[in-house]
Design brief:
Blueprint lengths: L2 H8 L19 H16 L3 E4 L5 E5 L6 E7 L12 H16 L8 E6 L12 H7 L4 H6 L8 H7 L11 H6 E9 L4 H5 L3 E7 L1 E10 L3 E2 L12 H17 L4 E10 L5 E2 L2 E10 L4 H19 L3 E10 L2 E2 L2 H11 L4 E4 L4 H5 L5 E6 L15 H18 L2
Parallel strand pairs: 3-4, 3-5, 5-15, 6-14
Antiparallel strand pairs: 1-2, 2-4, 6-13, 6-15, 7-11, 7-12, 8-10, 9-11
The structure holds glyoxylic acid and manganese (II) ion (2 copies).
Glyoxylic acid (GLV) binds next to loops.
Length: 400
C-alpha cells in the first residue's frame, strides 16, 4: 500500500457520523482537533516544523519558512456527512510526496510547505474557505469572529476553546508573503476524469459561487385549530424558493442552484413554523450571472412571502467570482505531467481564494463514482498513487 492510501486509512475512524453516514469534521470540534494532532505528528515524524498561523491554518515546513516557498496542501474538515477524500486526499498526497522526494535524496532549493486550511467547507460557521479568506484579508475578521454555528457558539468562542486567539484573526501578510506558488491536489467532485479516461487533471477554472440566507417570518400557530385562510406560514414561501431555485437555474445556461439546508423554528410536526431559514448555494460560470440568478430567485421569495403575509430577508453570506488559475503555472504543471487534461470545476477551493494573490493551481484525481460531498465519494488506490506521484513531480520541478 502506498503512503497516501495508508495515511488515509489512519484517518478512517476519525469523525465518522453515525447518524448521517460519512464524516462530519468541523473546525474546532473534537474530530477536527484529532486530525490537527495527527497532522502535527506526521509532520514531526518527517522532521517538518509545524506552526499554526494567526487564522488557525496549520503549516509544516521543509526548510526554514521564507519567501518564494512552494506550498501544497488542502483541508481536513468536511461537509456534514461528507466523504473521506474531499480535503484529506490533498493532505496525505502532500505527505506522500515529501516522503518520495526525501527517498530519492532531493533537497529543495527553496522552502517547501504543506498547509492545512481551516474550515474549507464552511460546514460549521457557514463561510467556506474561512482560513484562506481570513489569511488573504477577503473576510473581515470582526464578521468572522461573530459568525455562529447552529448551536449559537461564535467562531471567536470556538477558537478560544480550541486554544487559538481570535483577536489575531485577519489578513496575514507574513504568511501570504512566504507563498511563492501554491498547488492543491483534490479528489475530482464530478465526472470529468471518468469521461476523459485520465487519472489526473490540471485545474483550469472555478466557477463563481456563493451562499445566500433566506429568512422568512410568519406567525407560529396550531396545525389543527388554525384555518388555512388565517395562516401566515413561512414554509410556503420557503418551498417556493426551493422550486424557483431549480426552475431559474434550469433556464440559465450551465447554472446550479441548491437548497441543501432548511431550518423551521420551532420545528414541530403539529406546529405552523414562526420562522424558516434556508440557505441557497448558487453557482454560474462567467461574471455577474450568479448574482443575477439569485436576484431572480429572491424576486420569487418576495412575492411568495407577500402572498402568505410573511416577511423575508435575503443575506449574502459569501461570494467568490469565477477564478482562472495562473496560466504560467498551469503550463508548467502540464509540461511536468506530460499534457494531462485541463478541467474546469463547479467546486470551490482554497487554491481559488489564494489565486487572487499568488500563482496557484490544482491537480484533480479521478473519482470513479462522480459523487462528492457524500459517503460514496471515492478514488481508486492506483489513482491515489498516481496523484501523489504527480504532485511529487510537480513539487520537485517547482522547488528546484
Ligand atoms: C466545496 O467543496 C464547495 O464547493 O462547496
Ligand atoms: Mn468540498
Ligand atoms: Mn475540498
Amino acid at each position: 500500500m502506498t503512503t497516501a492510501s495508508r495515511l488515509l486509512g489512519e484517518l478512517a475512524d476519525t469523525g465518522r457520523d453515525r447518524s448521517r453516514g460519512g464524516y462530519s469534521r468541523h473546525v474546532f470540534d473534537a474530530a477536527e482537533g484529532e486530525l490537527r494532532t495527527w497532522f502535527a505528528e506526521q509532520a514531526a515524524r518527517r522532521g517538518l516544523d509545524v506552526e499554526t498561523d494567526r487564522n488557525g491554518n496549520l503549516w509544516a515546513w521543509w526548510g526554514s519558512p521564507g519567501p518564494d516557498a512552494v506550498v501544497t496542501g488542502s483541508h481536513l474538515d468536511s461537509v456534514p456527512g461528507g466523504g473521506a477524500f474531499d480535503g484529506p486526499l490533498g493532505v496525505v498526497s502532500a505527505l506522500d510526496a515529501v516522503d518520495s522526494l526525501r527517498a530519492k535524496g532531493f533537497a529543495p532549493a527553496r522552502p517547501l510547505a504543506v498547509v492545512v486550511f481551516a474550515e474549507e467547507e464552511g460546514g460549521r460557521f457557514g463561510v467556506p474557505c474561512l482560513g484562506s479568506r481570513l489569511l488573504t484579508g477577503s473576510l473581515d475578521p470582526d464578521r468572522a469572529r461573530a459568525l455562529r454555528d447552529p448551536d449559537g457558539v461564535t467562531l471567536a468562542e470556538a477558537a478560544a476553546r480550541a486554544g487559538h486567539d481570535p483577536e489575531r484573526f485577519g489578513r496575514d501578510d507574513e504568511a501570504l508573503g512566504r507563498i511563492g506558488r501554491f498547488v492543491e491536489l483534490h479528489v475530482e467532485q464530478g465526472r470529468g476524469l471518468i469521461d476523459l479516461g485520465s487519472p489526473v487533471a490540471v485545474g483550469s477554472t472555478v466557477i463563481a459561487h456563493g451562499r445566500w440566507r433566506f429568512s422568512f417570518t410568519g406567525q407560529g400557530n396550531h396545525a389543527g385549530a388554525t384555518l388555512l385562510t388565517d395562516r401566515s406560514d413561512p414554509m410556503l414561501p420557503a418551498a417556493a424558493v426551493v422550486a424557483a431555485a431549480r426552475r431559474f437555474a434550469a433556464a440559465a445556461e450551465d447554472a446550479r442552484a441548491t437548497v441543501g439546508r432548511l431550518v423551521p423554528t420551532p420545528g414541530g410536526t403539529n406546529v405552523i413554523a414562526s420562522t424558516v431559514d434556508l440557505w441557497l448555494d448558487a453557482r454560474v460560470p462567467g461574471a455577474n450571472r450568479t448574482r443575477a440568478l439569485v436576484e431572480e430567485i429572491s424576486g420569487e421569495a418576495r412575492s411568495a412571502a407577500a402572498a402568505e403575509g410573511c416577511a423575508v430577508t435575503v443575506t449574502e453570506e459569501s461570494y467568490s467570482d469565477t477564478v482562472t488559475f495562473d496560466a504560467g503555472l498551469r503550463d508548467e504543471l502540464n509540461g511536468v505531467l506530460g499534457g494531462v487534461p485541463a478541467l474546469p470545476t463547479g467546486a470551490g477551493h482554497d487554491a481559488a481564494i489564494l489565486a487572487a494573490h499568488v500563482p496557484a493551481g490544482m491537480l484533480y484525481v479521478r473519482n470513479p463514482t462522480g459523487i462528492s460531498h457524500a459517503p460514496e465519494e471515492f478514488a481508486e488506490a492506483g489513482d491515489v498513487d498516481r496523484g501523489a506521484s504527480a504532485l511529487a513531480e510537480v513539487l520537485e520541478h517547482l522547488s528546484t
